[in-house]
Amino acid sequence: MKKYTVAFTPEAEEQLAELYGYIAERTSSATALRFTSAIVDYCDTLQDFPHRGTQRDDVRPGLRISHYKRNTAIAFAVDDASAEVTIIGIFYGGRNYLALLAP
């Protein structure tokens, strides 16, 4: 089985940092680090199972959405030719991520 590489866009990295800040402000930095690190670990599992989640070509061609712990949506695209998964966005809570991802 082919192993894919996982890369985060600058926007996804920024969203992850914002999520860290949001959680740290409301709980603790240790809790925020545990949660955001777990999201990164979850994204890394896409190396072996890149076609996980729901395909959402209706929103954006090639878009896939997976959820982490029900309250975090992870938007990504899979390029089978280059064996790369690109994490496009990480959306926490009730954010309207579909509107943000539409072209």
**Strand fraction band?**
25-35%
CATH architecture classification name: 2-Layer Sandwich
- Roughly how much helix do the residues carry, as a percent range? 25-40%
Number of domains: 1
What is the first-to-last residue Cα distance?
33 Å
Widest beta sheet: strand line-up: 1-5-4-3-2
- Average pLDDT value? 94
Catalogue the unreliable spans: none
Number of helices: 3
Polypeptide structure, described:
This protein has 103 residues and is α+β, with helices and mostly antiparallel strands. The chain has one domain: 2-Layer Sandwich (YaeB-like fold), CATH 3.30.2310. It is 37% helix and 28% strand. The chain has three helices and five strands. It has a five-stranded mixed sheet. A hairpin with a 3-residue loop joins β3 and β4. α1 runs antiparallel to α2. The longest helix is centred in the first third of the chain and has 17 residues. It is globular and about 40 Å long. The model has no long low-confidence stretch (mean pLDDT 94).
